[in-house]
Amino acid sequence: MQFLSFYLTPENKAVLPTDRLAEVFSLEPSHVTPIPDMPAGVMGVCNWRSQVLWLVDLAYLLGIGSLFSQDLDYQKYTIVVVRNKSKVLGLAVKELGNMMGYDRSQIQPPPKIAMPQMQVLTLCLKGQIINPNGENMLILDANPIMEFLAKHRHQ
User: Fold this and answer.
1) Which positions ≥6 away from 1 have C-beta within 8 Å?
2) Alpha-carbon distances, residue 65 vs 59, 74, 133 (angstroms)
3) Residue 65 CB coordination number (10 Å)
C-alpha cells in the first residue's frame, strides 16, 4: 500500500493512503475565504481548479492541536486534497512528508483513544505504522472525515 506522510503537529505524524488523494499544493492564507458560523476547525474555502474547496485544519479536527496554536507564522498552508466519489476536501497540515510503501503485515492496530475531543480521530484512525526512523505514524482514512463534516456542517 502507498501512503503520503505528513506532520499534523511537530510531535504527531500521520499518513493517508494515496488512492484517495487528488492533489497537494501550497496556499497563501490570503487566498482562504472564511465562512461565518462554521464549526471550529473549518478554515474556509478557496478556489481549486475552478471549484469551491472547503479547507479544514486537520490537527484541530482530530483533536490533537491546531495549526494556529503552534506559534508558527504560516506564509503558506500545505493542503492535501482528498476525494470521495464526486466530493473533495482540503486538509491543511503542518508539513508534508514522503510517499511511503508498506505491506499490510506492517500495519499495527490503532492505539486506544479515550479522550472525547478526539471523536473524529477515533472514526478515521485505521492503524499505525512505525517508519524506518522509529517514528510512530497514524494511518488515517479520509472518508470518515468527509462524512463527519457533511453531518455536522449545519450544526
Assistant:
1) 17, 101, 102, 103, 104, 107
2) 5, 16, 23
3) 18
Which set of grid coordinates corresponds to residue 37?
458560523
Please give the Cα distance from 57 to 67 (Å, whole number).
7
Q: Give the DSSP H or E segment for 97.
A: strand 95-101
pLDDT at residue 19, rounded to an integer = 93
Residues 26-85 pLDDT 10s: 999 999 999 998 888 899 999 999 999 999 999 998 988 887 766 666 788 999 999 988
Rounded CA-CA distance 102/143 in Å is: 20
